[in-house]
Amino acid sequence: SYTATLPWTFFAAALTVSARSMLTSGGMVSKIYFPRIIVPLSSVFANLADFLVGFVIMIGMLIFYRVTPTLNMLWLPAFLLLATITALGVGLWFSALLVMYRDINYLLPFLTTIWMYLSPVVYASSTIPEQYRILYSLNPMVGVIEGFRWALLGTQQSISPSMIAISSGIALLIFITGLFFFRRMERIFADMI
């Protein structure tokens, strides 16, 4: 459904652009000193404009299909923040790795596609057997996508708080470790680009 595709598209685009940001800004990075974190950060936030356009289209679709909005929609900024943190965290890891190992650039579309199939974009997480749901929640995009579905469509079943907590924890872990790794590698960027 479009409620799952919209956050996934934002995440995948933000991840791809931020991962390649240090290479595409190589000339500026090697000639001017500035906080390097700005490069992947601005790449992620630039994709928010595309998300907002898609969100306006989704609101139009919800109105057209007469989907009654609920108070659950107030949770959307939290789920968008979770997607942004995840994209930025993974983007920080890959942007630093791509400076050192440029061949990873060719793996990125493949890894993003695999991640999409491991996320509930084309299926609901309710199709996953109960005994595997905690493991499945280790994917931070599970909480984001299911959260968007719950907030926008007002599905009868409530969203699992443990799924959101696990997804949020993993997203924060990815972001914090990505930030530390990026900061550690930042000193050699100008030499390697």
Mean pLDDT: 91
The shape is globular
Integer tally of domains: 1
Order of helices and strands: HHHHHHHHHH
Number of strands: 0
- Report the structural category: mainly alpha
Distance between the termini: 41 Å
Radius of gyration: 18 Å
Sketch the major β-sheet.
none
Helix percentage: over 70%
Strand content: under 5%
> Which regions have little confidence, pLDDT < 50, spanning 5+ residues?
none
Put simply, the count of helices is 10
Quick summary of this structure?
The chain has 193 residues and is an all-alpha fold. The protein is 73% helix and 0% strand.
Please explain how this structure is put together.
The chain is an all-alpha fold. The protein has one domain (about 1-190). About 75% of the residues lie in helices and about 0% in strands. It is built from 10 helices and no strands. The chain has helices at about 1-20, 20-25, 25-30, 40-65, 75-100, 105-115, 135, 140-155, 160-185, 190. The chain starts with a helix and ends with a helix. The model has no long low-confidence stretch (mean pLDDT about 90).
Topology:
Layout: H1 2-19, H2 21-24, H3 26-31, H4 38-64, H5 76-100, H6 104-117, H7 133-136, H8 140-153, H9 161-185, H10 189-192
Helix pairs in contact: 1-4, 1-5, 1-6, 1-8, 4-5, 5-8, 5-9, 8-9
